[in-house]
């Protein structure tokens, strides 16, 4: 069975108005607030009280591992090591 929409739909022209409305709703006791934006805005995340994502830290760790893996198959002169060990 489909559930019907229950709530309020609003559009805002300015980001400050959006954040102010979110804060007012949170102060009024609403805890399930959903927003849709064309691009991610950190101001809205802060107004909603969402914790910071760990994705940037995972990306940095992956970049470091990839860099080290790429450097591991070269010797100190910068020449590529033969994977079969024939040199």
Notable characteristics:
single chain, 87 residues, elongated
Short description:
The protein is mainly α. It has helices at 15-27, 42-48, 55-72. The longest helix has 18 residues, at 55-72.
The low-pLDDT segments are none
Compressed to H and E, one letter per element, the order equals: HHH
Give the quaternary arrangement of the chains. Answer: single chain
β-strand percent reads under 5%
Indicate the radius of gyration in whole angstroms.
24 Å
Determine the N-to-C terminus distance: 69 Å
Structural class: mainly alpha
Largest sheet: none
The percent of residues in helical segments reads 40-55%
Find the count of extended strands (DSSP E, 2+ residues).
0
Roughly what is the average pLDDT, rounded to an integer? 83
Structural description of this entry:
The protein is mainly α and 87 residues long. It has a domain at 15-72. Helix content is 44%, strand content 0%. It contains three helices and no strands. It has helices at residues 15-27, 42-48, 55-72. Helix 1 (15-27) runs parallel beside helix 2 (42-48).
Topology overview:
Layout: H1 15-27, H2 42-48, H3 55-72
């Amino acid at each position: 069975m489909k559930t019907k929409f229950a709530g309020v739909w609003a559009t805002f022209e300015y980001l400050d108005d959006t954040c102010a409305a979110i804060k007012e709703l949170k102060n009024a006791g609403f805890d399930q607030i959903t927003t849709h934006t064309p691009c991610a805005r950190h101001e809205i995340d802060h107004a909603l009280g969402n914790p910071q994502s760990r994705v940037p830290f995972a990306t940095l760790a992956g970049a470091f591992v990839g860099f080290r893996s790429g450097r591991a198959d070269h010797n100190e002169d910068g020449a590529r090591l033969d994977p079969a060990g024939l040199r």
